[in-house]
Amino acid sequence: MFLEFSPLEEHYGVDEAMIPYFGRHGCKQHIKVPMTQVVAIAGEPVYLPCDIATQDEDDAVLLVLWYREDLGTPIYSVDAREKDFGIAERWSDESVFASRAYFLPERRPAELGVDRVRSTDQGIYRCRVDFKQAQTRNSRVNLTVIVPPNKMVITDDKGDMKQAIVGPYIEGDSFTLKCDVSGGRPRPWVKWYRDEVEMDTPVTVLSGGAVRGVLRVGPLTRTDVRAAFTCRASNHLRSHPIETTLTLDMNFPPLTVHILGSNQPLSARRRYDLLCQSAGSRPPASITWWKNGHRINNAKETLSTDGNTTTSTVSLQLTKSDAGAKLACRASNPQMPSVAPLEDDWILDIQYVPETVVRLGTNLDPRNIREGTDVYFDCIIRAHPYVYKVEWRHNGKTLIHNVGQGVIISNQSLVLQGVGRKTAGNYTCVGFNAEGDGESKPFSLDVLYAPTCRSSQQRVHGVAKQERAHISCHVDANPPEVSNSRMLLQFRWTFNNTANSNEVSDTYISRAGTTSTVTYTPHTEMDYGTLLCWAHNRIGKQRVPCVYHIIAAGRPDQVHNCSVVNASLTSFGIRCSEGFNGGMPQSFLLEVREILTQELVANVSSAVPRFTAIGLIPGRTYAAAVLAYNAKGRGDPYPLRASTLRPPEKHHVHDKSLDLPRTAFQMSGAMSAAVGVGGVIMVVLVLFLIGVKQKCAKRKPRSGPPPSSQPGSPDKLREKDDSESDDRNPDIIPSDTDHLQLDYYRKQQVSTISPPPGSRMPRGSVAGVRGSIPAYCPLRTAPPQHQTMIDSSLSQTQQGIPPPAGFGSGSCTLPRGSSAGLTAMAAGDRCIPLQHLRTLPRPMATPTPLPRHPPRDTPL
């Protein structure tokens, strides 16, 4: 069977070859298979044809296999035996084409595309097509891969490599250029061109497969100056040739050469354009720049209008390593070999910004600097000119020599005495000279210290019974985290109340970084107390624990220290200090009322006790009240009076335009008498009216307004609010408002351990806090009288713990209906402060016996 094929491109060629074929009856026979010649350039895509067209419409392609003759197995396949040919499974041998091959069945004929063809892809390929009905079809492709040359080196008679300029030569000289080209398949041809005119180029093959093209030029004339000699090599018409062009340089000897502005100091890292001028050369001199014997090639030359002076400019960006280097400008003309090139040199003086390095003391370990140790640094400086000042910085801020604070600066050394956590950070030293200031890279000082309680965290938590609370303990520690699966920072919690102290189980404790959280749920009054949190790391244990008071949530305390600020004609501001929040988040409210009518004219709420009342009447005094409130209710109002400013008085401005010239005016005797009589009549009339008004006032008795119409004072309003609050919450016992004015006491620490009876503890003593302040009672709600008796009997009989001692003095509250409590209060005995116990259990009318069970000290 013969297959006809017409090439689609010029690089296709068709040939025929005999391949063995086994017929259906197993008989071996040879058939002629067309051979297509395909030429490709390395690195470009190539397409190998394969005819898969069918003559019968009912026929279809089942399988397409590509072979390379030096390999016995397929290298690419399209399997459509179980699928449609459009979605047939395609496979490519990873060792041959891999992902570079793809089949294009839509083309006529179909083609196997190969991207980025390689030199190793050259060979004979066979395409086998199996049809559903027709006989298997084979076709062959001879792929020839052209590899262009890849390297060209041009040398002169001396063997020097030339890249752009050849020479300079003098008139009458001859020279030879050798162009060596390596790489490429097939072997490339090499040709020389002068000004794009082909020259006679003898070609020789070197060992290793390189090809050399030789160009002999000479004797030279003036017309040869700046002639362009190009060496060009290629091995196929379709491949892009490689080439190198050289320019011939010819010069006459110069007379003078000078570097302009030499012998001046230069700054490092700055770019300078240096000039060198040469005169007297014909043609213009060739000026070259040299630094320590190395030529600088980026020079630019300009020629004067008369052609006698050549100026060369070189752009240099010098560094400190160029200090002391010799910069030379040479003007030469090889036309006169007996005359040495003229040269002007310059010994470079490079000045640069100080380079500084911070170095820790040699006997100090930067990974084990603990709090309280002494640390010293040295500043290593390299500068020209030398520094006139050295400065030390901590986190970008300049350090000042202060022996009292443990900062000692001496020359280029820094000593830190007794470092602490605030001392840690980045330290740099800065050197100053005429070039500027150079700052070193930061040296990070890491100070290790034992845990301490972090400030600005909530210390008092108001929690209701059966309410789950999450108490977080935040500490500062270094190191704080986990290393090598070992906890470097660990926490311990204890709970204290008036009876005992218990360790908190680890099952209720969680940890995240430097924060530990305990889950706490109070069930009884004994579950209110103090939680203490300790942490420790490998440096040591926390000395002073973090203290968190668990109290029964209640109404907030009264604000204090209120004052009026920023008063204007229609507004004024009020600033207060907040009191205890009752253990819950609190907000604040300002009410402004008319003093006489008690009409509400302003109502302002805020998250902080800072208010501004606007839209008021100028020159009027108002009754203001500031109170705090939370989810449990309102606190006691703080009354005060505030006034707006009075409007300025109106002053009449004298109008000079009304001034009239004075004239002589004389009052006659009749006119004077009339004026006197009129004045006397007016005085008598006024006296008469005053007497009549006083007489009427004596006859009519003064009666006050009915009680319902009397305007209430702020104090009465506050009493009314308190009575209404008591009606709403009958378990609240009112207290004297004088005690509510002692708001600053609420800012103090709260003790949770009651002193034993008869002991004299310092008032307000709390866990190392000393001071003469009123003592606070335990932060727990007092149980009803019968419950107290039962709990006391149980604790005395079962655990041997004495009943709680008396509470500290102060404004106190007791359960209603407790005669014992009233008697104790009357006797001035100790009791629970009102500002901490807002809500107390209701007394039971008839005490019922409760089941005896051991008291729960802590819900944990």
TrEMBL record:
<feature type="compositionally biased region" description="Pro residues">
    <location>
        <begin position="844"/>
        <end position="853"/>
    </location>
</feature>
<protein>
    <recommendedName>
        <fullName>Nephrin/kirre</fullName>
    </recommendedName>
</protein>
<keyword id="KW-1133">Transmembrane helix</keyword>
<dbReference type="Pfam" id="PF08205">
    <property type="entry name" value="C2-set_2"/>
</dbReference>
<feature type="domain" description="Ig-like">
    <location>
        <begin position="253"/>
        <end position="340"/>
    </location>
</feature>
<keyword id="KW-0472">Membrane</keyword>
<feature type="domain" description="Ig-like">
    <location>
        <begin position="20"/>
        <end position="144"/>
    </location>
</feature>
<dbReference type="InterPro" id="IPR013106">
    <property type="entry name" value="Ig_V-set"/>
</dbReference>
<keyword id="KW-1015">Disulfide bond</keyword>
<dbReference type="InterPro" id="IPR007110">
    <property type="entry name" value="Ig-like_dom"/>
</dbReference>
<feature type="domain" description="Ig-like">
    <location>
        <begin position="149"/>
        <end position="247"/>
    </location>
</feature>
<dbReference type="InterPro" id="IPR036179">
    <property type="entry name" value="Ig-like_dom_sf"/>
</dbReference>
<feature type="compositionally biased region" description="Basic and acidic residues">
    <location>
        <begin position="715"/>
        <end position="741"/>
    </location>
</feature>
<dbReference type="InterPro" id="IPR013783">
    <property type="entry name" value="Ig-like_fold"/>
</dbReference>
<dbReference type="InterPro" id="IPR003599">
    <property type="entry name" value="Ig_sub"/>
</dbReference>
<dbReference type="InterPro" id="IPR013162">
    <property type="entry name" value="CD80_C2-set"/>
</dbReference>
<feature type="domain" description="Ig-like">
    <location>
        <begin position="354"/>
        <end position="444"/>
    </location>
</feature>
<dbReference type="GO" id="GO:0016020">
    <property type="term" value="C:membrane"/>
</dbReference>
<keyword id="KW-0812">Transmembrane</keyword>
<dbReference type="Pfam" id="PF13927">
    <property type="entry name" value="Ig_3"/>
</dbReference>
<feature type="region of interest" description="Disordered">
    <location>
        <begin position="697"/>
        <end position="741"/>
    </location>
</feature>
<dbReference type="Pfam" id="PF07686">
    <property type="entry name" value="V-set"/>
</dbReference>
<feature type="domain" description="Fibronectin type-III">
    <location>
        <begin position="555"/>
        <end position="648"/>
    </location>
</feature>
<dbReference type="InterPro" id="IPR036116">
    <property type="entry name" value="FN3_sf"/>
</dbReference>
<feature type="region of interest" description="Disordered">
    <location>
        <begin position="839"/>
        <end position="860"/>
    </location>
</feature>
<dbReference type="InterPro" id="IPR003961">
    <property type="entry name" value="FN3_dom"/>
</dbReference>
<dbReference type="InterPro" id="IPR003598">
    <property type="entry name" value="Ig_sub2"/>
</dbReference>
<feature type="transmembrane region" description="Helical">
    <location>
        <begin position="670"/>
        <end position="692"/>
    </location>
</feature>
